[in-house]
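Weekly modeling sync, notes
Attendees: S.R. (lead), two postdocs, one rotation student

Agenda item 3: backlog of single-chain predictions. S.R. asked that every request posted to the team notebook include the full sequence so nobody has to chase files. The rotation student volunteered to paste the first one in as an example of the format we agreed on. Action items at the bottom.

Example entry:
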Amino acid sequence: MNAFRGFVIKEFKQIYRDKRTLVVLFGMPVIMMILFGFAIRNEIQNAEIAVLDLSKDSMTEELIQKIASNPSFSITHYLQAYSEVEPLFQQGNVKAVLIFDQDFEQKVIKYSSADIQMVTDATDPNMARLLQGYASSIIRDYSGDLSPEASAGRTGLTADIRMMYNPELRSVNLFVPGLIAVILMLISALMTSISITREKEMGNMEILLVSPLKPYQIIIGKIIPYLILSLINVCTILILAIFIFDVPFEGSYLLFFAESILFILTALSLGVFISAVANNQQTAMMVSLTGLLLPTILLSGFIFPVSSMPFPLQMISHIIPAKWFLIIVRSIMLKGGGISILWFQTTVLVGITLLFMGLSMKKFNVRLQ
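Predicted structure, as returned to the notebook:
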């Protein structure tokens, strides 16, 4: 019994000495609870919408104020003409636009009825449905306040709904671009980090160090196979998306593959950086899953809208490469967006890639000296 007790105590001490194990044991549950608890939201909060008020009378102003006071909406743009609607959606700045026709108040007074057009960005069909429901509810309540008959459904204000880019509200159009980001991050970052740490664990890295190869040549040689394999996966996913799931492709294939290569390089640079700071495959895998894969799924807008998350998580989402890649892919595939619209997201990915490539090279040079 004393021997067994000593053995158990030894195991506790061994775990205590391994700081990385302690971080995994106690840090991961906290991180997962925070991410899942705050990121997973079925309701919509602070969804960016725009208003085109061609009437500008007291009734439209009052209704706009009711919508603005609802926590589900955040009015970020006030438009002056119909021509401003399409560019705003192309840039991804708003999720919906409310349009009030001219002489709105006069129509309500004269005919006891008027139409309000609501145009939504249906690239995220779940959000489009929710926004439609929230706006319709506010309009019905306001209509009921104006007239008891309106609340009974005989007359009153109605919302004319128009879905852009995904009128059928097909969920596959939302998930396929997100799956591209998840798969590329999984293959490029996770597999690269594990591959390089495996070389260090097996002692092969020391053999490479005494070879004529320079550090940057070793790193490039390790990532080229995963770059090629990831490109093959991009082609496979795209073929399946278009011919099996009937996902539309409205933009440029050349731009799509150029942006995919950029994101693959971003993921590879993250994988190399993780392998540079991790001493073994287990640590590399845990860091990749916790620091890359979970945020890619939860904080990128793949499943849950970023605008509904708490402000700190929204700030964290800005450093998630998959968030910017998702905006790019959805814009190219569903909206036909070009580089003139996506230059900012592209610049962010280039910056993240160069940052982690530089950090990885610096870390490896320190290790190899």
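Discussion: group reviewed the output briefly. The chain has two domains: 47-164, 170-368.
Action items: rotation student to repeat for the remaining queue; S.R. to check formatting next week.
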